[in-house]
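pasting for the record
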Amino acid sequence: ASKFDWTDAVHHSATATGLYLMASGRFEALTQFAWVGVHMQCLHFPMSWWYIGCRRGCVLNSWREYASRHFRWTWVMAMTYRGGLMFLLAVQSVFDGLLAPAVLFALFGTAFSYLDVTWTKSFFAVVGWGPRPVRSRAALGGMALARLVTLKSMGWLWT
């Protein structure tokens, strides 16, 4: 997740192609969807958290915990929005009788969703939302008790 690889090349090529198809004016049916190109860039907001404090060699290493926390939820929101928007636009285009946009939204939506999910695995392996070890019931009970004691000592737990 810290180097430009083939998935980055596919992503940026698909983005450039999609933006060209929508904004060039060569395909009349697609110009009405030029705004989608802007909305697809929402992924760059969580990426700013990634570059500021999550990845190896980040800008502000002291912000790692803060950046990781905000990267997680903004990444999931952006990823969900992108895939959902492309899927809904494909369906809407079918009902509007616009076959070319429907096919393109389905293809690009599938490509972007696949890449987003692939990157999620890499990113979350670094920020810590990956698979968690299985813990025994006794260990889970001990952790729950420790949390209650902590909350009580901080005054956040009413008696």
